[in-house]
Design a protein that fits this description.
This protein is of the alpha/beta class and 496 residues long. 31% of the residues lie in helices and 18% in strands. An 8-stranded parallel β-barrel has the order 5-6-14-15-16-17-19-20, surrounded by 7 helices. A 4-stranded mixed β-sheet has the order 7-8-9-10, with helices on one face.
């Protein structure tokens, strides 16, 4: 008969942390959230690490080049989604790697023949007041002019007014030349009282935009995850089908690390993919794998050469794998089991393979629980889908706004390579849903609050590093009554 595990499948919501002694030096400012991203030998340091334990999910609705830059700026990493053509994904990687701290590739672009109506539509979609006017309407076209909110008045100007009739033309603009330093660009901005400075090449083509606010932001982000050339670290998703064509293109585009995107990683397809990458490009090319939920799955991928391993099946907010296939495991149980296997593997081999908790995060404190249970970092979908930096549209809903969010296993994504086990194509079924999430504004603000919560909780546990949290944490199971007790109760809330 089937082997039955006696331990229940538990979720993060079933646990609470027990406080430890908080020493006087255990304050938020002293908490260090750096964590290894890839495997390393005992006594050595990993080739890649994260400054905060956050990765964005490998999803169409989450991880494009804009999210990659925004998250790396804060010290985390994005893996650009692979459910697109090889050329499209490589171009996203290229865009993210071209983005130097403080230098922005324009994502709000128009042609001279477009109208005020197009300007307003683009402003609504992107949320930006400054737009570049190029000969082809693309980010790197020949610069013709700039539009800001000062160039038009919706109360006076007709909606069919041509862009060329109210933009600030190139001959009236102050520009910088390609190769200029961020400090030099900032001097021009301040000397001329500008809000933005277009950077053009010798052919007059737009290369970057430098904004007054972005220079300040860059100075305020000491945790930025950068390579040796001061470019942001960028990850890229791959699958176990077209990897022989996709991987070389992504590496050529500048990807710093790869990750196999699959709902189930305990497979020979993944070991074949890892083997190809390591034998073809060497150990310097890093690749994560997964997902797994137990010791056996972890050991399989660790021995195959995975540089980190994702944990979790069916725990995502829009994932329906469990109800469709009856396969998976509660995320807390999965993380603790795999973390124990990782520690045992480290003791036996001297090789530490980081694990990533992927899914199951409902509340911010669940991230801290995942770290305490042994995860080196977490991968989040719904969490990042809410922010301005995700690639989906912001939609008016009731009295507020929402953002679109869909799973890779949904009919909308049609990312069948992630789930494909063979069989007739007409028999494919969905393992994800199409949905909305409440709009939450800027990533910087939202992530900043979450990080403060994590650090504060770690102080309550007497830990100043993730490693200390894992070694000294005490956790207890909670009852349904305990959960009820832990939220506002027996009061009349003012906002209801």
């Amino acid at each position: 008969m089937a082997k039955i595990l006696k331990e229940p499948s538990r979720t993060f919501g079933e646990y609470l942390l027990i406080p430890n002694l908080t020493t006087k030096d255990c304050i938020v400012e002293n908490v260090n959230l750096s964590t290894p991203l890839v495997r390393f030998q005992k006594g050595e340091t990993p080739d890649l690490h994260l400054n905060i334990p956050f990765a964005s999910a490998i999803m169409q609705s989450i991880s494009d080049n804009n999210m990659a830059v925004a998250l790396a700026k804060n010290g985390g990493i994005s893996f650009i989604y692979c459910s697109q053509t090889i050329e499209e994904e490589a171009e996203m990687v290229r865009k993210a790697k071209k983005y130097k701290a403080g230098f922005v590739i324009s994502d709000s672009n128009l042609t001279e023949d477009q109208t005020l109506a197009d300007v307003l539509e683009l402003k609504q979609k992107k949320g930006h007041n400054t737009m570049a006017v190029t000969d082809n309407g693309k980010a790197h076209g020949k610069l013709k002019g700039i539009i800001t909110g000062r160039d038009y008045r919706t109360s006076r100007d007709p909606l069919d007014k041509k862009v060329k009739d109210f933009m600030t033309p190139i001959d009236k603009l102050i520009t910088g030349r390609e190769g200029i330093t961020l400090s030099e660009a900032n001097d021009i901005i301040w000397e001329n009282k500008l809000n933005s400075l277009p950077i053009i090449n010798d052919a007059g083509e737009l290369v970057y935009m430098v904004f007054r606010k972005d220079y300040a932001d860059d100075k305020q982000n000491p945790n930025s995850l950068l390579d040796e050339q001061k470019r942001y670290i960028v990850g890229a998703g791959i699958n176990s089908r077209d990897y022989k064509e996709r991987v070389p293109a992504l590496l050529e585009a500048g990807a710093d690390i790869l990750c196999i995107d699959s709902s189930e990683g305990f497979s020979e397809w993944q070991s074949d993919t890892i083997s190809y990458i390591k034998s073809t490009f060497g150990e310097q090319v890093k690749v994560g794998a997964g997902n797994v939920v137990d010791k056996e799955g972890f050991l399989f991928l660790a021995k195959a050469g995975a540089d980190f391993i994702k944990v979790g099946i069916g725990g995502g907010s829009i994932c329906i794998t469990r109800e469709q296939k009856g396969i998976g495991r509660g995320q807390a149980s999965a993380v603790m089991d795999v973390a124990a296997a990782r520690d045992e593997y480290f003791e036996k081999t001297g090789i530490y393979v980081p694990i990533c908790s992927d899914g199951g995060i409902v509340q911010d404190y669940h991230i801290t629980l995942a770290l305490a249970m042994g995860a080196d970092f977490v991968m989040l979908g719904r969490y990042f889908a809410r922010f301005d930096e995700s690639p989906t549209d912001k939609v008016k809903f009731g009295n507020g706004y929402v953002k679109e969010y869909w799973g890779e296993g949904s009919g909308r994504a049609r990312n069948w390579q992630r789930y494909d086990m063979g069989g007739k194509k007409g028999l494919q079924f969905e393992e994800g849903v199409d949905s909305y999430v409440p709009y939450a504004g800027s990533l910087d603000d939202g992530l900043g609050i979450t990080i403060h919560k994590i650090k504060s909780t770690m102080c309550n546990c007497g830990a100043k590093t993730i490693n200390e949290l894992q070694k000294t944490s005490r956790l207890c199971l909670v009852s349904s009554t305990s959960l009820s007790e832990g939220s506002a109760h027996d009061v009349i809330l003012k906002n209801q």
